[in-house]
Each structure stands twice: as structure tokens, then as C-alpha cells.
Amino acid sequence: MKTVYLVASGDLRLSANQDCWAAQAAMENQVGAAVAREGWKIKRAHPYDPIAKHGFLDSQKRGIEIFRSIPADAPLIVAEAVWQYTHHVLPGLMTHRGPILTLANWSGQWPGLVGMLNLNGSLTKAGVKYSTLWSENFDDDFFVAGLKKWLKTGKVAHDTSHVRAFADAKIPARAAKVGIKFAKEFRAQKSIMGIFDEGCMGMYNAIIPDELLHPLGIFKERLSQSALFAKMRTVSDQDAHAVYDWLCERGMKFDLGINEKTDLTESQVLTQCKMYIAAVRIADEFGCDTIGIQYQQGLKDLTPASDLVEGILNNVARPPVYHESTGAELFAGQAVPHFNEVDECAGVDALITNRIWNILGFAPETTLHDVRWGRNIDGKFVWILEISGAAPPAHFVGGYAGATGERQPAMYFPLGGSTIKGISKPGSVVWSRVFVANNKINCDLGLGEAIAVPEKIAQDNWKQTTSQWPMMHLVMRGITRDQFMARHKANHIQVVYAPSEADARRALFAKAAAMNELGINTSFCGKI
Hints:
Rossmann fold, 35% helix, alpha/beta, L-fucose Isomerase, Chain A, domain 3, 21% strand, 6-stranded antiparallel beta barrel
């Protein structure tokens, strides 16, 4: 039997790898059976570790060691049933000469889908050739046909006919004028992107090289998470309580307990309030137009999660923050756009979106989400988008009054902290993704509708994903599930509301014209 090698990139956090290993092992059994039916066998390139109690590549060091033993021309599957750190396998994949297949399970509970999309975006940025497949049970016609093709030819392609280049589309003159005027002023005025420690969770695709950013008029201010932590220690208890009281007065509810290890406590929330104040003050000090906090590695060992902070920052209506010396309110009446997990691609998108939506007179609150999962609901394919808490309350049914703070899962967030949980309201949405390919900045844009689903289904979706996190149910216009998966180059997607479908279309065209004028390779996706 001919041999396919298999590797599995995992998390950096031992608890996550241990908790997720059973799902990975079950998936690999299904993949192995599918490969065997085609007359091939799988050779796992790295064994299960009985001491660590998982079989993932859990560091860049380990990944490089293992790839030394894999024949450079062998067919190779990167199988993902969980979130993974791409840099564990990227060094090996960049020099591997044989055909590469990235493969993910279709599950809300086990986010291999999210991990694989990040890996695909990173490989695309790195210029590594690869094929990709996804499946729920690895026996459906789509997967079997794709696997056959890859085993036979080393390649499998998917339908991307939903993608249209900006140059091939007709843009209404009025919207184009708005976008072009904005882009020229934006580039001339210049903007600062505050980066609290670059790179997060192996997301190579989320780092934009400076030489690609500068022609847009965007420049990085490299900040330190240790500076953020230090600034938190200068915030008074009184100021922290003022933020907490503001949130409670607007109707936000916190599910509090007393056990620091398992519950959300008032102490954790107050520490997050200090982080919020510290972040705004640092943004003001350095003149940042947008900021991103890495959090996951480093800060997680020092302080509760940053996600409540991020969601508030992304909201126009938010607790006031005052300058330490002058007492002047900082960024009064404005959101301070925050890009979760310091995803710089999302940061560029959020900043440009915020500015254009303000010009158009639309509510500018925007956020990224994970492309977490998707399922058919009432005859429509619905994407379930989630992020660990950074969504602005303006997106929720009921606003702050519709938001709940729940403790972050201990597996990822050992010191807890509140999420900002809610269900996104129905309405017209523009979705997008900035990404790097062929050493250029690219942007895909499309239209969609955030829909309301029955409460029973919403609760089931939360049960099958992460119940503590905010959720949007999104229907994309003119794009099938598999078309989207074939094209999308990131685990993240940017979303913003517009007052109506006509307004969403107008804003989409203005934003696309701006991106194109800035030199970004822009494409429309789906029905526009």
C-alpha cells in the first residue's frame, strides 16, 4: 500500500491539547479508514505522548524535529480537529516538496475548522502550495471525491466562481467617489496601529509586514503587554468601580460567584475595568487610531481575560475614560477600534470600516469573529460566528441590556475574566477579510444577513460551540458553504451592520473603492 504521512498541529497550552485529544484521535481513525478504502495507508509522523497525554505537535521546536524524519517528497496530510498554532508546522511545510493536504472536521464543539482556516491563510501568505478538504464524517461524496483526486494527482481544486475582481465590477459613481476621496485623505493623514506584542497563537497570517502597511498610510506602534499590565496598576479602585457601575446601570448582567478558580468574580471584572482604562490611556498617549491586545500568551498568566475590555472599546457608547493629569475625556463619543488577538489584518479592516461608516452616517461598531461552524437552519445554510468576547454590545439584541458576562473557560483562560455574551440582532451586514497573498494585501467583501433563530436552536448552537461567547447567525448572499471554505484565508471574519440592504450595498461599494484606491487587491464575493 502507498503511504501518506500525517501530522497534527496542536495548541501550545497543555490543558487544551489534553482536553481535545480524544476528538483528534477519533477524527484520525475516520481519515485513516477513508484513506485505506482508496488503497493507501497513513503513517503518523509523531507518536502519542503518554506523559503529556496527547499526540499533537505542541511547539515549533517539536515540529522542526519531526519534519526532519518525514520524506520531503511524500504526500502529507495536516489533520486538524482542534485549534492549532500554525508555527508548530509552518517551518516544515515551507520546505516540504510533496503534495500537502490540510484537512478539518466539521464540528462546532471541536474547532478544527477554525484551526485549518488559520493554517490555510498562513500557508497562502507564505506562498506554500496546498490543497484543502473538510468533512463531518469523512464519508460524504464531496470529501471522498476530493480525497480520490488528491491521492491520484496531488491536487484538489474547489469552485470559486463566486469571486469577482474589483476591476470586473461596475461601481456606482457616488459610492466610488466617497471611497476614493476617503482613501486619499486617509493615506495623507496617516494612522497609527497600536500593537500590544505582535503575533498571537501562531497566527502567521495575522501579521502584515510593515512595507505592505506603509503605502496605506498605516504605521505600527509596537507596544508591550507588560506596559499595559503596569498601566493597569496605576488605575484607582474608584475609577474601576465607576466603569463597572456604568455597565451595570446600562443593564449588563454578570454571572458572579466566589470561587476564583471556577467562577466569575467581581474582583476579576474590576481588574478588567482597570485594563479597559489603561488601554484607552495608552492609546491616547501614543496617538493610536486602533489597538490590538495579544493576551493569549503572556497576559493570561498575569490577569483576567481582555475580551470584555475589547468589546467595550469597539462600542461607541462606552464608559468614559479620563486623562490621568488633565481630566479630559479620551476619545469622547467614539469607539476605539480593537482587533482581537492582535490580528493586524482585522485591525486594518476595522479602522477603515469605522471611518467610512462614520462618513456615511451609519453606526460604526465592527468586530471580527471566528468562522466557528455552520449548519442548515430552515432550509438555509447559516454560519455560526463566535469570538471570545470582543463583540460590541451595539451588535446585540438589547444592547448592553442584552449582554451577559460569564467566566471565560478555564482551559484557555486560567485567571478567568468576563466575556461579553449576547446574540447578534437581525439586520443587513457587510462582511470582509483582509489577508496577505502573493506579498500583497488583499480584501474580500460580501453581503449578508444576520438572522434571528428560534431560542431552542440558538441554545443548541451555544451548547455545541462555546456557550460563554457572543454569537452571530449569518447568511451570506450568493455563496455556498464549500465556496466560502475554498476561498477564505483566515480563521477570522469582519462584520459590520448597515441600516438596510440598500445601505449595506452602498457601504460595500464605498469600502471596496477605498480599498482599491489604497492599492489593496480587492474582490467581491457572492451576490452584490
